[in-house]
Amino acid sequence: MASPYLDSVTSPATLDQRFLIENGRPFAELAFDPGSRWGRQHLLACRVIVRSSHDPILPRISSYVDSVWNRETDLPGAIAALIDGPEISYKGLGERQLVGLYGVSLGQVWVALRVCRSPGEFTRSSTPPRRRQQTVREDYVDSGAMTVGSSPLRGDVSSGDSKPSSKDSSIGYIEGASSKLPDPPEDRTLRLVSCFIRQILYHFPPPSEEDLAPTIEFRDEKFCFKGQTRESQKAVRATDDGGRLVGTTINGTCRVDNLGVTLLEAKGRFQIVRDGKPFLSDDCLAQMTCEALALRLSRTRDNPK
User: Mind listing the pLDDT tens digit for each residue in 253-297?
Assistant: First the structure.
């Protein structure tokens, strides 16, 4: 089994080597797939090379960050509290209690974290389910015993041995168990990320009043990006889970780039774990690559220059 792409393809030489060993194909020859179905072959076809190291600060705002914040010594108190974690256990505490203890933005972070770690903790009801009243009507005819035209009786099919299932239900009925399931893991993760990033944005040193000062915002909406490659006219399409927007202040008015500079992709589980830490899988890296490529191509389509 090949090593994860993130480890093995870090230079043009290793890319050419893996492309040859794994029988890589040009991007134009691959079948059209949405981003959620991209994999290692797409990474090779797009000739993706992983940088060995990079600055965690976005290039577009790095000069501004360095001018207002010393990364080594200067840390706002609210952000330090976020890194340190809650002072007391949040287990068993409701949203109102956590917000009262830590404030709105930080309290929301701990609420989202609690939900991620203990999904459904405050959605389970301790009240026993109400007993269903059985009503018997002598003039009632079971629909399973009725025939309309050439329709067979329920369970009367060609095999002759099928029986009505106890799980059959009338139209509009929702099984109780399914209606009480917690939110999907991706949704809980997205809420935690949203609260976490906003806590930082709210308490980071504000931008200067000068024109061209960058403004950073977080986007919850999911965007679908579509584009085509220039030479082969190959369609590329992907949908993200949110992102960060960077705007510019001009004459006192903030103008935000609606497409943004970073994209968010949430997953329901960790696909690879090393020494107790999550590691980026090939499929996840490929999906993120598709989203970035679709965003770039959509911008090229709207503004060819």
Answer: 777 765 567 888 888 778 888 888 888 899 999 999 999 999 889
Domain membership of residue 107 (yes or no) is yes
With contact defined as beta carbons under 8 Å apart, do 23 and 224 qualify? Answer: no
The C-alpha atoms of residue 181 and residue 115 are separated, in whole angstroms, by 13
For 210-237, give one letter per residue: b (16+ CB within 10 A) or e. eeebbbbbbbeeebebebbeeeeebebb
228-238 pLDDT, tens digit per residue, is: 888 778 889 99
Query: Would residue 192 count as lying in a domain?
Result: yes
What range does the domain containing 194 cover? 77-120+183-205
With respect to residue 223, please indicate whether it lies within any of the assigned structural domains: no
CA 289/CA 9 separation, integer angstroms: 14
Domain count, the chain: 1
14-16-21-25 Cα dihedral, nearest 10 degrees? 140
pTM of the model: 0.68
